[in-house]
Amino acid sequence: MKIKILYLTGLIVFIFGCSKDTTVPIPSPGSSFIKETDVLQKESKLLMEGVYSVTSGSEKFGEYIILKWNHSGLLLTCNNGLHFIMQAGHLDSVVFVQGYWRDGYSDATGLCNMYISKSEGGTTIVTRNGAQKIIIRGAYGKNNGLPDQVLTLEYLRPFSDHVKNSNYYILSHRCGGRNSDRLPVSENSIAMVRFTEQLGTTGIECDPRISSDGVVFIYHDPDINTRLTQKGPLAGDVSAYTWKQLSTFVTLIHGEKIPTLEELLTFAIDSTELRFVYMDMKSAEAVPTVIPIQQRALQHAAEKGRDIMIVLGIPTTDVLNALKAYPDYQHVPSLCELTVDDARAVNAKVWAPRWTLGTQNDLVQEMHNDGRLAVCWTIDSPNWIQNYIENGHFDGLLTNFPYVEAYYHYIQE
Amino acid sequence: MQFPHPYPQWGFKISAGLAMVRPPKDLLENSYQAPLVNIHMIFGLPWKFSLESELTTLIVSNQLTLGPRFSYLYKNLGVKVGWDVAFIYGQLKQGGFDNSLQAWIHYPNLSVGYKLKRMSFTVKGELVVVTKAVSKSGENEVNNSKNFLNGCTVGFYIEQRIHKNKVFAIGIKDNYEKFYWPTWMIYTTFNRYYHIPELSFSWIL
């Protein structure tokens, strides 16, 4: 009897000790003032972009902040994972900027309200005339609390010619972010593709798998689990189910449906400004099915005049061999994670080594000499992102923290 | 082994056990499950002091702790205070990886226990202070952290005499930490605390 009590106690404590993973909620100001403002013209937005010095608030946000517009709004990003997801508009000659900040490495977040007065750059931005002297004043807060900490940014310089002229890709993992980053949308979902541009992403990595009836869909893990999905009737090997079963019964953790590869590519082409899609093949069997989808997507992109690279990722020799078995495989745009010789053997457009192998500048130069790009994966530490951008010659880095990569890319002189 | 009481001078006790750990999904996305093997030794010293040492291993992650204790027993109630210093060594050379870790962690700790005739109940709390943690991939230093409060742990242990002098112990421990040493090889960049439950079973030999 005593032993039973002993076991039971242990079991109950263990079960209740398990913690539930959470999402960091997006702070809500209650009402959005930005909706009442006028939209800024493209030229006005470009005038705002650049490097700002932080004259108040540098103890939290660092010495400099990068301001960069994207498809959905405005990103302000720091060197330490702190970033602001903002919207902006103008009333008369005053520019209003409103949104929230978040620390990508922790759960810290809060509201932020800022403005640019007429005399401190508002008139220049709105009329696109005059000296480019911009001071952004405002405050930030904690969670849903009223912003009460002063933040002042002063325009320092535009992006360098090196940055403006480079064809650099800020590549985000799993369509833009992992579930463990506690973003408001699920990894490998259409919603994530929409969301990730706000984080500074210019290209995405996704994870194609194939269903038992031959439909290619985007999903990272080999099994249906509560890390990726809400509790439902299906379990076990995700590829053992038909597409109808998956699309009917599986809901991603934040309520989205699993996308097909076709849906994802169409969305990326039609509804974003992304320039790179890296299909990290999770199954060699899917290769012959993925290639025609890739070809149709590239055709669709060409018709729409979209400059977007869509490459078939080769992470294993199984996938490499499956590609080699495909007719005319050397004309399939691919990204090879294996050796440079493997990349050459399949005429890969991109060579993508693991970051822990180092910057490998000699091999990157060889790839460039061949007319190939080189990107590396998956690099998350701010120090290493800085190191690889400053000392490496890669054409892009795959990361879970695109705003950090954006900071170190755009701040280059 | 967990219940606080003065040990006989120069006396020696040893226990062996397993601990099942469930790291949060943020750290380990795939549900790798492997038990931590644990050897715990106590050596009695004069004046109610003792020296405790623990070796915990997962093959690729290993921790060796050593630290003094002072124990006091009043009727059925025992109290023990101590300070452990741990060295952690990890190496992963399989599957194309060439990763390693060396770290030093301090665990100041306090235990309070109550004993019955054949059972004892102990609550143990400890602070976890990392003084140095260096992880490498090949020759690249991936992380070099120094001197931070990593969190705390709270454990509840039941020890029961099963047969003659053989004692079985079951414990549940909540590690509330940022850096959980057995998972060093994933190089997490998150700066947030996690509750990591640990269920342990051990035999006091």
List keywords for this structure.
heterodimer, A: 413 residues, alpha/beta, TIM Barrel, 2 domains, 8-stranded parallel β-barrel, 30% helix, B: 205 residues, Lipocalin, 10-stranded antiparallel β-barrel, 10 strands
Number of DSSP helices of chain A? 14
CATH topology assignment of the largest domain in chain A:
TIM Barrel
Model regions low in confidence, pLDDT < 50 over at least 5 residues of chain B: none
Radius of gyration of chain A, whole Å: 23 Å
Amino- and carboxy-terminal Cα gap of chain A: 73 Å
Within the largest sheet of chain B, what's the order of strands?
A: 1-2-3-4-5-6-7-8-9-10
SSE ordering of chain B: EEEEEEEEEE
How are the strands of the largest sheet of chain A arranged? 1-2-3-4-5-6-7-8
Helix content of chain B: under 10%
* Total number of distinct structural domains of chain B: 1
What structural class results from the helix and strand content of chain B? mainly beta
Low-pLDDT residue intervals, each spanning 5 or more residues of chain A? 15-19
Count up the domains of chain A: 2
Give the helices and strands, then pairings.
The complex is a heterodimer of chains A (about 425) and B (about 200).
Chain A: H1 2-17, H2 42-48, E1 50-56, H3 58-61, E2 64-69, E3 74-77, E4 82-91, E5 94-103, E6 109-116, H4 122-127, E7 135-140, E8 149-157, H5 161-165, E9 169-172, H6 190-196, E10 203-206, E11 208-210, E12 216-218, E13 223-224, E14 236-237, H7 243-249, H8 261-271, E15 276-280, H9 287-303, E16 309-314, H10 317-324, E17 334-336, H11 340-345, E18 350-351, H12 361-369, E19 373-376, H13 382-391, E20 396-399, H14 402-410
Parallel strand pairs in A: 9-10, 9-20, 10-15, 15-16, 16-17, 17-18, 18-19, 19-20
Antiparallel strand pairs in A: 1-2, 1-8, 2-3, 3-4, 4-5, 5-6, 6-7, 7-8, 11-12, 13-14
Helix pairs in contact in A: 8-9, 13-14
Chain B: E1 12-21, E2 36-44, E3 49-57, E4 61-74, E5 77-92, E6 99-115, E7 119-137, E8 140-163, E9 166-177, E10 194-204
Antiparallel strand pairs in B: 1-2, 1-10, 2-3, 3-4, 4-5, 5-6, 6-7, 7-8, 8-9, 9-10
